[in-house]
Amino acid sequence: MIIIALILINLILISFFNFKTILIILFFECLSGLISFAFLKRKSLGLYKFSSSQRIDNSNINDIQSDKYYQKLIDHFDFPIFFLDKNLEIKIQNNQSILSYGKNTSLPVSSVIRDYEFIENIGKFKKNPKFNNFIWKKELPERKTYKAQLKYFNNFIVLQVLDFTQENNSKKNQELYLTNLTHELKTPLSVIIGYLETINFHEFSLEENKSFIQIINSKSFEMKNLIDQMLKLSEVENLVKTKIKINVFETINRSINNYRELFKKNSVTLITDLDSSKNLFIDFAPNDLDIVLNNLLSNALNYSESNTTVTVLANLNIKKNQIEIIVKDQGIGISSDNLTKITEKFYRVDKSRNNLIQGHGLGLAITTEILAKNGCRIDISSDLGKGSAFKIIFPLS
């Protein structure tokens, strides 16, 4: 439209002015046009720069929004997470990492997690990105084991710090468990092999060979008993049974009757006080309470000397809203150091008497596991040289 208007104006000028005047006017029009073109060009470049700068600002805004999004996302995790740059400086932390190590953005992660093993392993990761999964220990004061995992994500390196203490201890316990089991099986097996090699009907009398066979038979049953206990422990740890109503009085009496003759044979007096449990019922898995009571009575018998007493009590503790069964002996007792360990698998208080006292240190481990599965617990008290008391506590529903 502007161009058409200018053409019409020039036609009018030609009809009213002479040629010289028209040339002057056209000259100034061209000059004005050039100036206008230059101005518009500068203006358009300015607008372009402005819009480009806007795009950069928007990009920054997107980065900020992304950081906020990552922050919100990782705050949901209950273990420390760090977003690191290529120099392993901290850019983003979740709440758990701030709680564990403090807020330390823009600092190298190796100056925040100051454990020697961690710093050493981070150095290895710098040299070789494939070294992105490692374990380190913090001995003091926590005595904890941690696992670090590093992964590349967009422009970040994501560091996760996981508490690996329980898994590490579990692995150690399994290794110890297998070592102890091997040892327990090896002892009777060595005796069996030894006596099998000893039997000789040409060199030894019939009575001597019979005694060898009796020892072999005894050790074979010992191995069978150990395997049975191992299977029972495995069953207890993994199998969940349906509970039924159990008559406390009847169950205790049944277990006591199984051991009454054995106590008499070993000259150990058995005293019972069960009257208060006659009408008491508890919710318990079938046969589990029999196993618990048999283990406690067997334990009391094995660690009691002749002419001592074992007492079995059952009562209702109304104040504490619980049923209590107590097996108390006058045996060798347990030291305070051993008291916290006796429920561990294969642990025996008096290791010097292994050949005299039957058992493999599994009875109390099974007992504790059964009680825990049934929502109960055992309290153990003891005086070294005077005896021990094992109290089973059943909370009333």
Describe this structure in words.
The longest helix is centred in the N-terminal third of the chain and has 56 residues, at 19-74. This protein has helices at residues 2-16, 19-74, 95-101, 116-127, 165-198, 206-238, 248-265, 288-302, 336-339, 363-373, and strands at residues 81-84, 90-93, 133-138, 144-153, 156-163, 244-247, 269-273, 281-284, 309-317, 322-329, 377-383, 387-395. With 397 residues, the protein is α+β, with helices and mostly antiparallel strands. The strands form three sheets. Strands 2-1-5-4-3 form a five-stranded antiparallel β-sheet, sandwiched between helices. A five-stranded mixed β-sheet has the order 7-9-10-12-11. The chain has ten helices and twelve strands.
Distance between the termini: 96 Å
Shape: elongated
Low-confidence runs of at least 5 consecutive residues: 43-61, 351-357
**What amount of the residues lies in strands?**
15-25%
Mean pLDDT: 78
Question: Could you say which structural class the secondary elements and strand pairing correspond to?
Answer: alpha+beta
- Numbering strands along the chain, what is their spatial order in the largest sheet? 2-1-5-4-3
Give me the strand/helix succession.
Answer: HHEEHHEEEHHEHEEHEEHHEE
